[in-house]
Design goal:
elongated, Molybdopterin biosynthesis moea protein, domain 2, 6-stranded mixed β-sheet, Molybdopterin biosynthesis moeA protein, domain 3, alpha/beta, single chain
Length: 404
């Protein structure tokens, strides 16, 4: 067996960042910038009001309450063609250009219209610049806004649109092919015959990839036939940036994935000192990374979390490639035996004010997918005799914990 860190180092060392490409900003969320984004404009580009109210001269409000003559109305998008003089005010809407002569805005809640004339009573004095957004207040033209390596979120896309960018240069969104192998596997709702099981791995792995925002190609359910497996793999490497297989990576006589990949690719077959997910195959076929995950459904998902997810995030240019980890107090105990492996136990997570608690789920077998479905995390159990109630454990967080 080899240690987890050694296996991860080998996998990550073979995975390089993908090439950069331009994409429309609407398709950039979840991708990583490959070039610096520089502002094309001052933002805001002109002085405008942050409130509905009245544009005035601050000096006219010093003796408030004071009555001012209303000389016009300014909605957002209209260029003012008048100037605010002494004793005058302009009704103005949020985002509208501040007219010449005005140096402050009184919010509408601090005013009262005079019904018998075109006047407004300003009930409180304001200072120069009140509720005015100045040009370049957010950033000025030429500002380096975002560096390469920035993970693009919704607000970044809003900034791109604000400065007039229609496309940005990002590291490519990978295309990942997913296949399962095995004569025992079937799909659909038909009754199972003796020896048959329904393929779950392909569906759960595709869902994990969807969650990451990568493009997924379903390479199908492949029987235990060398020619079929070879054909599926070659078809996949022609159009994919990575391929993941499930099953056929152990040491059995009918592990045809191993036979084919040994003949065609540069593969390493590992027995990793972890439980579940001990067997792992990884290598390159025509330069494309191939991840051979174990066939047991929980093992496949744990192996994905420990190897494939961080490797894909690396090639996408992510700086943070790991799921978040936290420390939590065990509310239940879990015994294990010393076997030289790190165990990853399925747990539920609960947040208690500033701390976390975990409970170990029933059904910790590598074939028991229900516990994985109910888990919010994987508790990391070093080689030893297990965890007692009240012990602190490290937990890889898979989803948000319950709040109690």
């Amino acid at each position: 067996m080899i240690e987890l860190e050694e296996a991860q180092e080998f996998v990550f060392g073979k995975c390089s960042k993908l090439s950069a490409e331009e994409v429309e900003i609407s398709k950039s969320r979840g991708l990583v910038l490959a070039e610096t984004v520089i502002s094309n404009d001052d933002i805001p580009p002109f002085p405008n009001t942050a409130m509905d109210g009245y544009a005035v001269r601050a000096s006219d409000t010093e003796s408030a309450p004071v009555e001012l003559k209303v000389i016009g109305t300014l909605p957002a998008g209209k260029v003012p063609d008048f100037e605010v003089g002494s004793g005058e005010a302009v009704r103005i809407m949020t985002g509208a250009v501040i007219p010449q002569g005005a140096d402050s805005v009184v919010m509408v809640e601090k005013t009262r219209e005079v019904e018998t004339s075109d006047s407004v009573i300003v009930e409180e004095g304001v200072k120069n610049g009140n509720f005015i957004r100045q040009p370049g207040e957010d950033f000025v033209k030429g500002t380096e806004l975002f560096d390469p390596g920035t993970l693009i979120g919704a607000a970044h896309i809003g900034v791109f649109a604000t400065i007039g960018l229609e496309k940005v240069t990002v590291f490519k969104r990978p295309i990942v092919g997913v296949m399962s192998t095995g004569d025992e596997l079937v799909q659909g709702a038909s009754d199972l015959k003796p020896g048959q099981i329904r393929d779950s791995n392909r569906h759960s792995i595709k869902a994990l990839l969807d969650e990451m925002g990568v493009e997924v190609i379903d390479l199908g359910l492949i029987p235990d036939d060398e020619k079929d497996i070879e054909s599926a793999l070659f078809s996949g490497v022609e159009k994919c940036d990575a391929i993941v297989t499930s099953g056929g990576v152990s040491m059995g006589d009918f592990d045809y994935v191993k036979v084919v990949l040994d003949r065609l690719g540069e593969m390493k077959w590992m027995q990793v000192a972890i439980k579940p997910a001990k067997p792992l195959a990884f290598g390159l076929l025509n330069g494309v990374p191939i991840f051979g995950l174990p066939g047991n459904p929980v093992s496949a998902m744990v192996s994905f979390e420990l190897f494939m997810r961080p490797a894909l995030l690396k090639i996408m240019g992510y700086e943070q490639i790991w799921r978040p980890y936290l420390k939590a107090k065990a509310t239940t105990s879990l015994k294990r035996r010393k076997d030289g492996k790190v165990h990853f136990a399925r747990v539920t997570l609960a947040k208690k004010k500033d701390s976390y608690e975990v409970s170990f789920l029933e059904g910790q077998g590598s074939h028991q997918l229900a516990a994985m479905a109910n888990a919010q995390g994987l508790a990391v159990l070093p080689n030893g005799e297990g965890v007692k109630e009240g012990d602190l454990v490290d937990v890889m967080q898979l989803s948000e914990p319950e709040i109690n």
